[in-house]
Known about the structure:
The protein is an alpha/beta fold. It has a single domain, classed as Glutaredoxin (3-Layer(aba) Sandwich). Helix content is 29%, strand content 24%. The chain has helices at residues 42-51, 66-80, 97-102, 129-137, and strands at residues 2-4, 11-13, 38-39, 56-61, 87-92, 110-115, 118-124. The strands form 2 sheets. A 5-stranded mixed sheet has the order 3-5-4-6-7, sandwiched between helices. Helix 2 crosses helix 4 (129-137). The longest helix is centred in the middle third of the chain and has 15 residues, at 66-80. The radius of gyration is 14 Å and the shape is globular. The two termini are 22 Å apart. Bound molecules: zinc ion (ZN). The site of zinc ion has 8 residues, from loops. Zinc ion binds next to loops.
Amino acid sequence: MKLTCLACGQANRVPDDALGRGPKCAVCGAGLLPDHPVEVDAATLDKAARGDGLPLIVDFWAPWCGPCRSMAPEFAKAAQGFAGRARFVKLNTEAEPAAGARHNIRAIPTMVKFAGGREVARQSGAMPARAIADWAAG
Ligand SMILES: [Zn+2]
């Protein structure tokens, strides 16, 4: 399957039988299946959302947003349970306002799930880890 490196944005082809062996980016060596949320820029987000073989769970947040900061550890906790099945990323809408606008983010935190190259679910408001996991699995 195709997996965009969340660290450098390189598209990697990963054979199915390599998914369980901690596949790494061919360019920068970063792990392609992190068990924690990775901060991405707008370009990497768009690449990963468009064509990756695993679902992508995005937390649109900003440093000035209190509920966003309190949800961060819950989002990280939820990500651990999805290692190898989905990837969790964070997009700072203060640093990347164009990305927030393009994805029509009206309130933060907002989580968006991408699968099969398109948005399949969206949820606004902070949630505990269990609720995030239930939503992400749906
Ligand atoms: Zn890389």
